[in-house]
Amino acid sequence: MSTTLMVDFIISLDGYAGAEGWPGFWGMEGPEYLAFIDSDAEKQHVTLMGANTYRLMSGFAADMADDPGMVAMTAMPKVVFSSTLKAPLDWANTELIDGDAVEAVRGLKARESRPLRTLGSVTLCRALLAAGLVDRYRVVVFPVITGVTGSHRIFDGLPDVALELADSRLFDGRLQLLEYVPTVLDGPPGA
């Protein structure tokens, strides 16, 4: 039996993963959203990431070792795909895979009992989606447009994808969670 893989992003309304000079969550996180991401249900998976996300997040974990969110993240199993990092990695519960990420995730999906979920890692997510390995695509849209300061556009470089809405939720009266079942297309329908 195969486990599921979810690509999970937080984005600005114009599709950026972050923006220069803005705080985390664009300074718009609220108590409902923070409770959601801190819930046990949001911690029962294996986290997949690339080297850049690993460097960023392991740095946060080291700098904020007593932060409850970082403690939980440290305790979770994590898999990092990189040809530049070298084992052993410093962040606890982290496995390094330096081979082909798509093939490695295909193997993880076949043998892992826990769901798989990405953290950041736009390039990794694009490759997994293009390979047809993504079962769910979830975005939490923050109500801000960062056209001048935005960085890391999420959707650029993706194949054409049809999305079937599987779940939606509103947090703190302003943050919209949208969860879809993706279908990668060969091109526009009817073309």
From TrEMBL:
Domain Bacterial bifunctional deaminase-reductase C-terminal: 4-175
UniProt-listed SUPFAM superfamilies: Dihydrofolate reductase-like
Coiled coil: none
InterPro entries associated with the record: DHFR-like_dom_sf (IPR024072), RibDG_C (IPR002734), Riboflavin_Biosynth_HTPR (IPR050765)
UniProt-recorded name of the protein: Dihydrofolate reductase family protein
